[in-house]
C-alpha cells in the first residue's frame, strides 16, 4: 500500500511539495480547515462537517503551529525544530514554508521542494532554514490554553502576553496543547454516535 501523504497549506511551499508528490492530498482553505492532528489522523472541517483524514506522512506548509504542537513536535520560540530536510522530531511529520518563517516566496518554494525530495528519498542540494522569531505574535492565533496556562496566570507572572512567553521559550520542549481552532457545535455534534444513556442525578450532600 502506498504511503498516504497529506499536505496542509496551498501556499508556495505546499504547492511546490504537491508538484513533486502528485498523489498527496492537499488540505487548504477556503475549501477545508485543518483543525487538529493526532498520530496518523488529521481532523479537517469541510462544508460544515468534521472528517478524519488518515496520513502516514504529514507536511505542514501553512502557519498552523497548533497542528505540530498537537503531535508533540518540539518547538523553539514559536518555530518548529527541524533538520535540514524539514523533518520534525516526530516520524513522518515535516514542516516547510510559512510555519518555519520563510521570508520570501522563493524561499518557501525551496522548502517545499526539499521536503518533497526527502519524502521521495532523493538527495536534495538545498536545505530548509528556520526564520527568526517574529517580533509580534497574534495572540488570537495562540490561546493561553495552548501553553497550558490561563491569561490570568500569565498576567500574574508578569508576562506581557503570550508573544513574550513564546519569544522567551528556548528549551525546545513540546508545549502542552489543547485544540485552538474554533469549530461549530453542529459539526462536533455530527461526529457523535448514539445518544449516551441518562445518568442519575448527582447531588452534593454538603449542599442538601
Structure description:
With 208 residues, the chain is an alpha/beta fold. It has a domain at 5-134: FAD/NAD(P)-binding domain (3-Layer(bba) Sandwich). The protein contains six helices and nine strands; from the N terminus they run βαβββββαβββαααα. The protein has helices at 12-20, 65-70, 105-119, 151-156, 162-168, 185-190; strands spanning 5-8, 25-27, 33-38, 41-46, 49-54, 57-60, 75-76, 79-80, 93-95. It has a four-stranded parallel beta sheet. A three-stranded antiparallel beta sheet has the order 3-4-5. β4 and β5 (49-54) form a beta hairpin. α1 (12-20) packs parallel to α3. The chain starts with a strand and ends in an 18-residue tail after the last helix. Mean pLDDT is 78; it is low at 136-162 and 174-180.
Give the arrangement of secondary structure elements.
Blueprint: E1 5-8, H1 12-20, E2 25-27, E3 33-38, E4 41-46, E5 49-54, E6 57-60, H2 65-70, E7 75-76, E8 79-80, E9 93-95, H3 105-119, H4 151-156, H5 162-168, H6 185-190
Helix pairs in contact: 1-3
- CATH topology (level 3) name of one domain: FAD/NAD(P)-binding domain
* Average of per-residue pLDDT values: 78
Shape: elongated
CATH superfamily of one domain: FAD/NAD(P)-binding domain
Percent range for helical residues? 10-25%
Proportion of beta-strand residues: 15-25%
By secondary-structure content and strand pairing, the structural class works out as alpha/beta
* Poorly predicted runs: 136-162, 174-180
Count, helices: 6
Strands, total number: 9
Arrangement of strands in the largest sheet: 2-1-6-9
CATH level-two architecture of one domain: 3-Layer(bba) Sandwich
CATH class of one domain: Alpha Beta
Radius of gyration computed on alpha carbons: 19 Å
Largest sheet: 4 strands, parallel
- Helix and strand sequence: EHEEEEEHEEEHHHH
User: How many angstroms does the end-to-end distance come to?
Assistant: 61 Å
